[in-house]
Amino acid sequence: MIIGIVGKPNVGKSAFFRSLTLADAESGNFPFTTIDPNSAIGYVKIKDPALDFDKHSNPRDGYVLGDWRFAPIEIIDVAGLVPGAHEGKGLGNKFLDDLRQADAFVHVIDLSGGTNEKGESVEINSYDPANDVRFLEEELDHWFFNVLKKNWVNIEKKFRQQDMKLEDALNTVLSGLNISLDQIFATTMALKLDKNNASDNVFEIAQKLREISKPMIIAANKCDILMDDNLWEKKLNALKEEFPNYIIVPILAQYEANLKSASKSGLIDYIPGESIFSIPDESKLSDAQKVGLSKISEVLKIMNGSGVQNCLDSAVFELLKLKPIFPGGSKLEDSKGNVLPDCFLMPGNATALDFAYKLHTDFGKHFIKAIDIKTKLMVGKDHILKFGDIVEIVSGK
Predict the structure, then answer these.
(1) Contact 315, 248 (CB under 8 A)
(2) How far apart are the C-alpha atoms of 233 and 253, rounded to whole Å?
(3) What is the pLDDT of residues 96-138, one digit of tens each?
């Protein structure tokens, strides 16, 4: 599972990447600071399921803070996109190639309107951030369209002359974009396509494929610049009204990155996603740090947090509709005494049998039953798992 951070230059993409991963990523107040893609691990936030048993988890991957468990997700930050990228403008071709592997996008925009379409700094509120949503859709649609157009003669030959199914013919080209056959089938069904009308609707195929295979959430950054008269909230609501089909989350990427760094250094106690933090020993802070943290604290209270953790959680759990499932027996522990060491992010419609196969092919092949550890009930192979379930698989081998 890979989440790609997208957007034009100078909107805070690299700060957002750092705020999620604490990985080094070059940033600056000028276009194309990021050239090569950065890849690191971020973490989604889940209520620790072991709490129901008066315990705390011991994750093999990820970590626990307070009552929360943080499960790893791969994040990539790629070169900024400008209008005309699909024609090779800016670093467009490189940007698009780097995004092939992503399962979903977080589109970072500058809500303050202080960055123009080229990624150049301009006067605050002089640029409409809604333009960025439209132009990114257009660039991605044309990216998909160019891939299809370049290969359409071969695709059409396969489904007409070789009598291959339309979905299979498309799949010979689209698998390289990390698009599944199920997603291609969903596209053909949504557009009511068949072999007779597919060639007349190539651009529409590209658009629908983009929507289905690369879903997107919008991270409205730089809200701290718009604190006067709650202007950030007014602009956010206007954006939501114009784009009702998108999840739009207000974020403070640089604030979150600062909080994570301060927490890592032991200067503050902070749980990602919370609207408050504490300072164990103020004597360790410089006057400038005290002033900075005071300002951050005030803004966090107004916005109920930095929004960064909420944005990633929404991308994984709401946009992609994944759910965390934990393998475990009645004691919840593995052979080394670790409590619920593993967490798997499963599709929203995943069944007990799907989970058995996820753990091991033999578990799936020889599935007998599953046990819901929370309810202590036995469930069959077609049982749809719920968010945060702890499941024991019983197999004949």
Answers:
(1) no
(2) 17
(3) 667 788 999 999 999 999 999 888 999 999 999 999 999 899 9
Q: Residue 55: is it exposed, middle or buried by C-beta count within 10 angstroms (0-12/13-18/19+)?
A: middle
Kindly tell me the burial class for residue 291, based on how many C-beta atoms sit within 10 Å of its own C-beta (0-12, 13-18, 19 or more): exposed
Predicted confidence band at 345 (pLDDT cuts at 50, 70, 90)?
Answer: very high
CA atoms within 13 A on the CB side of 63: 7
Question: What is the residue range of 75's domain?
Answer: 2-128+215-316
Are 207 and 248 in a shared domain?
no
In terms of Cα–Cα distance, which of 175, 237, 239, 232 is closest to 209? Answer: 175
In a domain, 140, yes or no: no
Q: Output the pLDDT for position 353.
A: 97
Q: What H or E segment, with its residue span, contains residue 363?
A: helix 361-365
Looking at the fold, whether 176 and 260 belong to one and the same domain comes out as no
Dihedrals phi, psi of 342, to nearest 5 degrees: -115, 150
Q: Considering the domain boundaries, does residue 133 fall inside one? A: no
